[in-house]
Amino acid sequence: MAQDTEPHRALAHTPLEDAQAFVLGTVLCALGVHFLTSDGLITGQTAGLAVLLSYLSPLSFAVWFFVVNLPFYVLGWMRMGPRFVVKTGIAVTLVSVLSTLLPGWITLDSVSPWLSATLAGAVTGMGLIVIFRHGASLGGIGILALWLQERLGVQAGWVQLGFDGVLFVIAGAVLDLWLVAASLLGAAIVNIIVAVNHRRDRYVGR
Fold this sequence. Notes:
Layout: H1 15-38, H2 45-56, H3 61-80, H4 82-105, H5 113-132, H6 141-152, H7 156-174, H8 177-197
Helix pairs in contact: 1-4, 1-5, 2-3, 2-7, 3-4, 3-6, 5-8, 6-7
């Protein structure tokens, strides 16, 4: 029997499929934020910056997350196009809104910081994969990293790692070091889940 050698062509998502994915992905990411903020933890990238700023100011994570992403939309428009930016803007807005609502729906008491960090990393990683596969992101440093790699030849991974390094150093100066250590575990889990499950050679575009 002849083997089918035709390449698999990815089918475009319908608006309804995008809508359900955005709800699922953003709910998971907002739940991850709820686990973090309930125990005074942080994470990496733009979300981590927004969480840290919410601890240091009267403004909430939702406000900071929406605001700090605004400058990156310009780079996203230049590099990824308007469709990507619109979808990303929707995803960021949904996470901001849901992270405000979830504490009123779910109360977390007496949860170990290490368990909170683990669960936050797990649900956030899965939420990001859903969002990525529907042509969006949660904005931020990832867009800047890709732009710097394209313009200056600086590896995007190193840019993101450097940002997270500075973020966690600052967090270590203002937060309990035990909580920062637990936060590092959660951030590592996010990156591992995305790295294993969002590979172009195995899953994306097949």
